Amino acid sequence: MASRAQPPPPLPPHLRARLHAAPLFSPRAPRCRGGRSRLLSALPSPSPSPPSRSQRVSTARLEREPGPAPSAEQQQPRRDPALAAEIARLSATRARLRAARTLEDKLRALDGEPRVAAFFGEESSRGFLGALESREVLLLKCLVAAGQEHVLGDELDWSGGIHHEHHHRNGVGGGSALREALYSLAGLVGKWSSEGVVGGETGSGEMELLRSLLKFLGDIEEFYDCIGGIIGYQIMVLELLSTSKDRMHRPSKDKFVDFHVPDGLNLLEDTEYASQAALWGIEGLTELGEIYPIGGAGDRLGLVDSDTGESLPAALLPYCGRSLLEGLIRDLQAREFLHFKIFGNQCITPVAIMTSSVKNNHEHITSICERLDWFGRGQENFRLFEQPLVPIVNAEDGKWLISKSLFPVGKPGGHGAIWKLACDRGIFQWFRHRGRKGATVRQVSNVVAATDLTLMALAGIGLRYNKKLGFASCERRPGATEGVNILIEKQNPDGLWSYGITCIEYTEFEKYGIPEPTVITGSSQISYPANTNIMYVDLQAVEEVGSRKSASCLPGMVLNLKKAVSYVDHLGFECSAAGGRLECTMQNIADNFTNTYNYRCSKGIESM
Question: Is residue 431 scored above 90 in pLDDT?
């Protein structure tokens, strides 16, 4: 671990102000005076002695400490039999598709699926599928093989004139006769409006919906190729759904898992070092990029256009007379101006922005940039890349929710998609061509992150000490809907011990036994620090993770089922259903950066 060998040089007066910031967490941190860790490191002191229980502030075990081996029955997850059978069926289908070398081989493998054959019929090439390209046929057959044939409905001739049974909407069978009559009436009205007659040729409206569905499915198949595309997505959904139904069972491949409260550098306590770190960050701006994940739906804000009633993304929320996106760029320009005033040269930081199609997010972001002439920075210094939407699933059986036939309900799949997506879209290569080594990652929701030295100090320490990853964190208030940073200690199946910093989202607190902070005698009890959605990343390190052909490039996958999903059905009614979507968590890329030892560390692991 690096140590500070000499005192920092004199600082400009504007960097000597009292700091109001948060602790910084980063693997392999430098140590400060007296041996105290300035940044939280994932590298514990090498001490093979038994751990001291007094050092553990708060823990949450996923498995018991090594003891009598549990029986085989106790080790097995208590899964829902129907979900377990479906997972097994889909896993076999995925294996056959992975073994197929060509597109034709994949289609033949899907044709062998009873579900596909029953839906499309043996002569499906004579029906509507005959007018589609082979790649498009593959997507539709994957959809049916995944058990989501209700998405396609009955409006189009899928089976070449062979009648097949009606598939209930949103995967829920039954329903009242009145409801079915309304569905039928809505179908007739739709045909009248698009064709003028009933029973005519396929209308342009249906074709437009089909094209939209094919793009939706194509995005899922491409983005989730590391886990098996559409089939793999559904397997992951069902596995997490099965786990959520058995709250007592927490599957873990590790022999022992324990959580500790991390102890990082507090910028308020050591303002001299914080100012020095901020100066490093300003000096290193020429080696830094900026990454803004702003493709989220922002449903909690309830932001709408007062004139049109259109739902708007969070990036358009007015703050101090400007949109949140404009505020991010303004903060960046202030740091660049400070670099110019101190070091005498100008620099323009490249900015990568992850958007999405929800609430016309991508169009709104592009419109702001164009209207403001790309903030005077030049369009060549921006890269916008769109995050794919993922299907919302029913919380009971994992069926995809639909607004109407050919129109599944979709939302972005979490900010954790940014690492793989940036790799797929060449964002890291773009940064590299501009001579960038690291990047500051900042979500649009943290509007005060640049009002102190936090951003500059985080980036400065990351650059100077060649960190792969760093977090900015703060004290967590009771009831806050934010995740927490923890130090995780676990013994792997091979007997080795690993240590690292990770993030647990607030939706997973109950699952992992994370307690809410409580107030005792006017001061907050010691608890896990809150995630602030501010990170430093080494671009080469995160590109290596994002380029992997396994689930590890999609960090922290969760199925959030805690809130009801609202959507509009094809009758125009506002509906609400228990459901969720597969989400990746951005901060959990830290799970790929751990340190491993052949003994259990003990002394000072919270402040290593």
Answer: yes
